[in-house]
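Troubleshooting: if your tokenizer reports a length mismatch, compare your output against this known-good record of 326 residues.
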Amino acid sequence: MPVWHEKHLRAATRAAGVALWSWNVDTDAITMDEAAYDLWEVPKSELKITFEILSRSIHPADLERVRSAFAATRAVVGAYEIDFRVLSGGDVRWISARGQGDDADIADRIMFGIFLDVTQRKQAEEANELLAGEMSHRVKNLLTLATALTQITSRSAETKEDMVRELTSRLIALERAQELIRPVPGRKTGATLLGDLISVLLAPYDEKEASVRIRVSVPKINVGETSSTALALVIHELATNSAKYGALSISSGTLDVSCNAHGDEVAVVWTERGGPHVVAPKKLEGFGSKMVHRSMASQLGGTIAFDWSDEGVVVDLRMSKHRLAN
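Known-good structure output:
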């Protein structure tokens, strides 16, 4: 078996991204290796390190939790671990502090442990949670849409055969719409026209005998692959809500989607009329609402505003033409 020397251990810790620390339980002095100084962005001239010095970098929302955990480490039986955020310039990073509690393996009143930068792992976890939430939301929306489309079809179909044919047609149209918001890795879809995108997404809601139920009047504006996904999510969410509560929930309801562009701004106006009376929600805090606002701001460089009038909801979407083309 090979003999491990200090230089071998240090090479291993560097390769693993591990930073070392020790804590004197009597004086509260913390000693760190060079990697830990770099991780905490503490000047190496700062020879006397304490928790209070490190706490300057800890995220305010995590500070009291970390302070309490730090004070309680000696009462912890066995190994302990705590993850927390630190502020680095304008960025937020995650650090995991690990050690041994209950004075186990203590030497000369000093406890030992490691710091790890776990930012990538935390970001991946957050992305997975967001994806799981979005997928759950989409599945619920699809089930609601299937119910709404069944009700829409039953209003116009005269026989069960007609209902099966019309419902199948609408579900196929819904599948086409879902393809627009489900990008496939490695497949480049290229640009599409704004009017075509909106028309495809709204096709499942057309009534058999209501030729002007949904009107789309949009000039020829290109929508890029990235922005088409974000915009499709927004239109999909508006249509879902309309089929559940708004103009598209009854046969007499109508929807007008118009658009105009000035300079770099594209304004799309979604106008519902003839539907049931709607009441403005007190707070737009559901997952769908948050997703819509986030998509409009971060991916389309724009805003979305709702006017809950007595005649029906009017939605004003404003986007960057440059961002829309990407």
